[in-house]
Amino acid sequence: MTQLLRGLLVSYSPDRAPLLEMLLEVADSSMTYRSRYFTTLQPEPVLDLLMADENNPRSLAFQLADLGEHFERLPRLKSQSALDREQQTIAELLDRIRQADIQALCQVDADHFRPRLAELLGAVATILPSVSNAITHGYFSLAQISRQLASVQSGHTP
Fold it and tell me: What is the C-alpha separation between 61 and 27, in angstroms, rounded?
C-alpha cells in the first residue's frame, strides 16, 4: 500500500484523476469510498481512506496496527531486544500516521509534488523492511539453528 500511495499520490496532477479510481479498485475500497464520501474522487479523502482509516482493512494504518498486535503475541526470548525495538518502531510509525494532517499531506508544490506525503511514506517504506528482517532473524533463523542442532544431536547431517 505504501508503494501504491507513493507512486500514485506523491506526484499528482488533476489530469491523473483516473488513477484515484484505479487506486481505490486495487485497494478494494471503491464501495467504501462512495458510501462514505458522496463526492467526486479527490486526493484527500482517498488518502484518508487508504492511509489513515484504521477501520479499513486495506489501509496502511490498519495494517500497521494489525502488525503491532501480531508482534505483541510473538513469543520472546531474553536475547530478542531488537524485536522490542522494532515493535516500538511500528508503534511510532502508526502514531505518525494517526497524527498526520491529511490536508497538509495533500498540498502540492509548483511541480504537483507532495513533499510532506513523500517524506511520510518514504519513512514507512524505509523502516518496514527492517521490521521484516528483525522477525526473520528473530524467529526463522532460530528455527533453522534448532533444526541443525537437532540433526547433529541425532547423528544426521543437515
Answer: 13
The reported pTM is 0.81
Cα–Cα distance for residue pair 46/33, rounded to 1 Å = 7
Helix (H), strand (E) at residue 125: helix 115-135
Confidence of residue 96 (pLDDT cuts 50, 70, 90): very high
> In the beta sheet, which residues pair with residue 11?
113
Q: Measuring CA to CA, how many Å separate 102 from each of 90, 93, 126, 131?
A: 20, 15, 21, 25
Q: Which amino acid is at 143?
A: A
- Please write the tens of the pLDDT for every residue from 121-145: 999 999 989 888 877 877 776 545 5
> How far, in Å, CA of 81 to CA of 114, rounded?
36
